[in-house]
Design brief:
heterodimer; A: 324 residues; alpha/beta; 5-stranded parallel sheet; 23% helix; B: 106 residues; 5-stranded mixed sheet; 27% strand
Chain lengths: 324, 106
């Protein structure tokens, strides 16, 4: 018996392109994408992963992760991602650190194009592009990113030694940012538009017990002021309609994330941009699957993203099997 | 390899450089800096005849980052004739660096 695996390419395709055809192409290199890669490559599917220039996803911008099972003493976010990457590569996932640019889902195999123009071809695709920082979209914000406005306390906290900063937001990531900043800054003010925080109990407790962290509720930032670097902010109390100003050295934005889905115009999304995920991790296009924060607006955890990545990988595997 | 510069050598290495000079401001604890580092090295190798590439550890040197209002890293600044001509914050692709350099060189 001939045990060689033969794949028949359409002649036209083979003549036009020297490219190989992958079974699965994963777009994204956070917990969802890398977990999918571990599963598909272990299933002996030829797997490509377009990781992006800034590979690793949101955990690359964190410090200690305490809620990922299997690490009772916690693990640093970037170390966890490095481990996942090694694990995927060990089983054969080919990771390219290039930014994805566009997909053509109208042709088979699907065609993916990276920034710079390189093309890749794959029979199935798993979209795991995650989500990015949601900015405040107020006057003075964009021009001060890197000059006092930041979304990454673990990256930038050390510049705020002996300084005063604001953290905007009321969720877990805002509490984490405030705690990280308290190692350097003298005073951290958490500004939240809601009546009470929505962070988990343990994160709230930690922040509230920290003597350097203060809280202001029912308040929004309306403008970031500065000249070359941030010098202050304008605030508005939404309950009393009272406007005020506060001199400040830094503004850390942690109000949530927006899904990275706009690069997929052919894929159905909801009104907030989250990709619509149907049964078995499917999207509206046959052969295109989705995993992680790009569709999940509810849980948004590293472990749930990894779980979704596993589901999408198993579904893609089954789907490829059915196509034979 | 891009040479390390300090607050003390910044004047002679960068401001008085007769070439367009790219400074990579980084620190050991900065994860994105570790991603950008090799990209900057590759760029430096490719443009070694046209652009001088150096790096500065912001933990060991605070005067220069303070002077240029650097509050996030990685930050890259292209200097030409002693003037900061182009500042880029965050991870960049080699193509973006080449584009910025080409604009300054033309």
């Amino acid at each position: 018996m001939n045990t060689k695996r033969l794949t028949v390419f359409p002649k036209r395709f083979f003549m036009e392109n020297n490219n190989e055809i992958y079974d699965v192409a994963i777009i994204g290199s956070g917990p969802a994408g890398l977990t999918a890669g571990i599963y598909t490559s272990r299933a002996d599917l030829k797997t490509l992963l377009l990781g992006g220039l800034k590979w690793g996803g949101q955990l690359m911008l964190t410090t200690e992760v305490e809620n990922f099972p299997g690490f009772p003493d916690g693990i640093m976010g970037p170390d966890l991602m490095m481990n996942m990457r090694k694990q995927a590569e060990k089983y054969g996932t080919q990771i390219k650190d290039v930014n994805f640019s566009q997909a053509d889902f109208s042709q088979k195999p699907f065609k993916l194009t990276a920034e710079g123009g390189e093309n890749f071809y794959s029979k199935s695709v798993i979209i795991a592009t995650g989500a990015d920082t949601k900015w405040l979209q107020i006057k003075g914000e964009q021009e001060h990113i890197g000059r006092g406005v930041s979304s990454c306390a673990p990256c930038d906290a050390a510049f705020y030694r002996e300084k005063k900063v604001i953290v905007v937001g009321g969720g877990d990531s805002a509490m984490e940012e405030a705690n990280v900043l308290s190692k350097f800054a003298t005073e951290i003010t958490v500004v939240y538009r809601g009546e009470s925080l929505r962070a988990s109990e343990i994160m709230q407790k930690r922040a509230k017990e920290n003597p350097k962290i203060k809280f202001i509720y029912n308040t929004e930032l309306t403008e970031i002021m500065g000249d070359g670097k941030v010098t202050g902010v304008k605030l508005l109390n939404t309950k009393t309609n009272e406007a005020s100003e506060m001199p400040i050295d830094g503004v850390f934005v942690a109000i949530g994330h927006i899904p990275n889905s706009s690069v997929f115009p052919d894929i159905d999304r909801d009104e907030k941009g989250f990709i619509k995920r149907f049964e078995n991790s499917k999207t509206n296009i046959e052969g295109v699957f989705v995993a992680g924060d790009v569709h999940d607006y509810h849980y948004m955890q590293a472990v749930t993203a990894a779980g979704y990545g596993c589901e999408a990988a198993l579904s893609a595997e089954k789907w490829l099997e059915e196509q034979k | 390899m891009a040479a390390n510069i300090t607050d003390e050598t910044f004047q002679t290495e960068v401001l008085e450089s007769d070439k367009v000079t790219l400074v990579d401001f980084w620190a050991e604890w900065c994860q994105p800096c570790k991603i950008l580092g090799p990209i900057v090295e590759e760029f430096g190798e490719e443009y070694k005849d046209k652009v001088k590439v150096v790096k500065m550890d912001v933990d060991a040197n605070s005067n220069t980052p303070g002077k240029f209002n650097i509050l996030s890293i990685p930050t890259l600044i292209f200097f030409k004739n002693g003037q900061p001509e182009r500042t880029m914050v965050g991870v960049q692709s080699k193509e973006q660096l080449k584009k910025a350099a080409d604009e300054l060189l033309s």
